[in-house]
Amino acid sequence: MATFPIDHVIPRTAGGTTAPDNLALTCPHCNAQKWTAMEGIDPGTGASAPLFHPRQDAWEEHFEWASSGVLAGRTAVGRATIVGLQMNDPGMVELRILLAELGIFPEARG
Predict the structure, then answer these.
(1) pLDDT at res. 2
(2) Signed CA dihedral, 92, 23, 33, 64: sign only
(3) Is-contact 9 55, C-beta < 8 A?
(4) Would you state the torsion angle of the CA atoms of residues 39, 44, 46, 48, taken in this order, to the nearest 10 degrees?
């Protein structure tokens, strides 16, 4: 499938450590978009919002499946993360649909 890089949730340039509670596996696409970002713009309000923190935030609180392979944000954090990491890039949606069809990622069926 793919190699999942390890991301510093709080970037080292912002004082983040390499301790396990600051590390998370990420998809290569999302990691390439994030770089050192810790926040993004909520398209619903235009205000700045923190990006989803996989060690502290609950996925279900911030995201939901809008349709097959497409994510929707339930909160400012979810919406800013989806836009900032380009999580609904057509290639990523297509990949999630394919993985769902293969039974590897059933949640993406929406």
Answers:
(1) 66
(2) positive
(3) yes
(4) -20
> Domain map of the chain by residue range?
28-109
Tokens representing 100?
């769902």
- The three-state secondary structure class of 97 is helix
DSSP 20-50: GGGEEE--HHHHHHHTT--EEE-TTTS-EEE
Tens digit of pLDDT for each residue in 59-93?
Answer: 999 999 998 899 999 999 999 999 999 999 999 99
- Here the tokens at position 95 are 């990949």
Cut 0.85: pTM above it: yes
What 3-state DSSP class applies to 63? strand
Closest CA to 29 of 93, 86, 98: 86
Please state, in angstroms and rounded to a whole number, the distance separating the CA atoms of residues 48 and 23.
23
